[in-house]
Write a structure and sequence with these properties.
Layout (H helix, E strand, L loop, with lengths): L2 E4 L2 E5 L7 E5 L9 E3 L5 H8 L4 H10 L6 H23 L5 H24 L5 H25 L7 H19 L4 H30 L6
Antiparallel strand pairs: 1-2, 2-3, 3-4
Helix pairs in contact: 1-3, 1-4, 2-3, 4-5, 4-6, 5-7, 6-7
């Protein structure tokens, strides 16, 4: 077994059945201990990736239904929201937190949410300026994550504020999509989404700075 030691972390090669590299981390920048592997084909990664595939049937059924929702659309959206918690839970319980999973999880969130917001903006239910703000923020975060990956070889996990941001934005989209007459709720959630998006963007910048200063894991 090869063992490489550095500041605050160990990097070892474990001879598991799939001969995967495992990063044994003493502490990440959230103060939690995590073991991060190089596995790709895991149940949690499949759950994360599956969120992207709910978009097309949701948009199609909504369009052919005359811009109204039905039970199938509700179930698909419910799965999308639930799976955002399920993938992380499964990864932790099965000890399959991976570098690929840390990348797939936020990317799947952004792609699925982005496509759904584009659709609702096209039909005039979401302000176009909000769509551009949403896309610009996510593109900048992805660029920052790509830089960290190329420079340090690691993928920064989503921040807590990032997860909260996803939830608030999701509530805004759900209110617009499912409850067309709740205009006051739309307005409140719209500005709440803008606020938390900007706050979480700042937190991502701080996380990237911490990684570049030496906390290179998560």
């Amino acid at each position: 077994m090869w063992l490489y030691r550095g500041i605050g972390f160990n990097f070892r090669h474990n001879k598991y059945r799939n001969k995967t590299w495992v990063l044994s981390v003493q502490n990440n920048i959230d103060g939690k201990k995590l073991e991060v592997s190089g596995k790709v084909f895991t149940i949690s990664n499949f759950i994360s990736f599956s969120r992207v595939f709910i978009v097309l049937p949701v948009v199609y059924r909504h369009y052919i239904n005359g811009y109204s929702v039905d039970v199938i659309i509700g179930l698909l959206i419910g799965y999308g929201v639930f799976s955002d918690y399920l993938d992380g839970y499964v990864a932790r319980k099965t000890n399959t937190i991976s570098e690929v999973g840390k990348m797939i999880d936020p990317v799947s969130d952004k792609v699925a949410a982005g496509l759904l917001f584009i659709y609702t903006a096209v039909i005039g239910w979401v302000p176009l300026w909000f769509l551009w703000l949403f896309i610009a923020r996510d593109v900048l975060i992805l660029l920052g994550s790509s830089f960290i990956k190329l420079r340090y070889g690691k993928v920064a996990m989503s921040t807590i504020s990032g997860k909260i941001s996803v939830n608030v934005i999701s509530l805004y989209w759900i209110s617009v999509f499912f409850f067309r007459s709740a205009t006051l709720v739309h307005s409140v959630l719209l500005w709440a989404s803008v606020t938390i998006m900007l706050f979480s963007f700042i937190m991502y910048l701080l996380r990237y700075r911490n990684i570049m200063k030496g906390a290179r894991f998560n």
